[in-house]
Amino acid sequence: MRASKGDHLIQHGRVVGQHDQESEVVEVLGPEGNPPYRVQFQDGHQAILSPGPDCQVKHKEEPQR
After folding, report:
1. Spans of biased composition, class Basic and acidic residues (predicted)?
2. Integer Cα distance of 52 and 32 in angstroms
3. C-alpha angle with apex 22: 59 to 34, nearest 5 degrees?
4. CB-hemisphere CA count at 13 Å for 49?
5. Distance in angstroms (rounded) separating the CA atoms of residues 40 and 47
6. Are 6 and 61 within 8 A, CB to CB?
7. What is the DSSP letter of 25?
């Protein structure tokens, strides 16, 4: 898994009733875009995250030319 600053990580709920969590990558701590990542959640708190198989990366959109 590779991500860049500004990408979003979506962590899917693993049990019935658990919602997906989305966070934004604010810093890549691993080499060449690899984990761990410092992420910021929608409520403003930050954490260091090493995503597992229940996560996906939503890459930021490339600027339109």
Report:
1. 1-10, 56-65
2. 18
3. 50
4. 28
5. 7
6. no
7. E
* Dist. CA 15–CA 60, nearest whole Å: 28
pLDDT tens digits, residue range 10-58?
Answer: 999 888 888 899 999 999 999 999 999 999 999 999 999 999 898 999 9
Confidence category of residue 3, pLDDT binned at 50, 70, 90: very high
Give the angle 40-10-27 at the CA atoms, nearest 5°.
Answer: 35
Residue 34 DSSP class: P
List Cβ neighbours of 14 (8 Å cut-off, separation of 6 or more). Answer: 54
